[in-house]
């Protein structure tokens, strides 16, 4: 059986009572999110009049955390639960025009137009341009001079002074195109909020306690805003995964404006998943990134329960992939598996949308949902890999990996960018695989990569046999 998601380990229990602790990092499934929940409950018990804010970076996780807290603490409604960006929008300065963030498809078109105008004759790809824009907006870099002087350590690709100038010209063009369409990036939301706070146009009531889950995804400018809305003697508690977010690039907390030296601890035991699933994910990681083992925070596996080896299902087409997963889920449901025990993680948002539609047609609209928009309930969850961080489920299907592998083989990217993409993808794979508590099924369209051929378990039974 999967351990109940509200049981706190002895290791984590000690930390939940240690109010001087600021940062906890740990292996996937070690109970980091539970620490946030228990910390929030204890703070409410000890300081019922204090203002408490819980933040994370995506909607599925904040919905899940709030639902679990209500199970833990009853009908307590005095804790504020927000994604960071939704907090910004909820506390927008009075009279400040609302921003209209651009959609992914439209943004891709603007990025492509900008890239062709400024960078098509260079080794810089559209993906690198997008990442550089996001990196700049995550920081308080507002002038050409500030950008040219900025420390880009950990960016994954280098730029000499000339290329930095061309990149900044491209960024200015992209901003102009956005402005002409009266649109903005999501990265513009915290920049506007920071400016409104600095100028006194936004005046949210400050918080006594701010708790951050998945803190490795928080940008430097986000932390600057958090410091502005936290009372002078307030308490900031963060949990983070060292294999993801800015930590995966070797960047430090100090570079994000936070000094956690002497104020951190690690959780090294995994309680979520089975030994077979964690071994599988760890071996995949080590095969693809043999020099990066330390980032895994080597888990203690001796105490972990055994289970069924992960299943890798090779398929000929994306249509076959969809049909296979639907057949597997249908069989699981017929054998009594509750729908809410199933999570589907897709590599791309387009694939997640297609899968969501097909499953709703098969099982009914109410039986399937994207966790970004709804609270946890008695339904199958379907989300992208980027939205899956922090989630967990007894049974997980991971789809669309062939798209990520194909991108790694593209002849249009440099070897430097290829290495960075392999590193990013590997950490996403590890995160997705370790969402599973009991069963992990991976579908792959086309010839299996060598890594998967070595890890595949031919004796692994179908998910239908669960």
TrEMBL record:
Pfam families: UvrD-helicase
PROSITE patterns per the UniProt record, alphabetical: UVRD_HELICASE_ATP_BIND
Taxonomic placement: Bacteria, Bacillati, Chloroflexota, Chloroflexia, Chloroflexales
Species assigned in the record: Kouleothrix aurantiaca
Biological process per Gene Ontology, one example term: recombinational repair
InterPro entries: DExx_box_DNA_helicase_dom_sf, DNA_helicase_UvrD/REP, P-loop_NTPase, UvrD-like_ATP-bd
Protein name from the UniProt record: UvrD-like helicase ATP-binding domain-containing protein
Entry keyword set: ATP-binding, DNA-binding, Helicase, Hydrolase, Nucleotide-binding
Keyword Ligase attributed: no
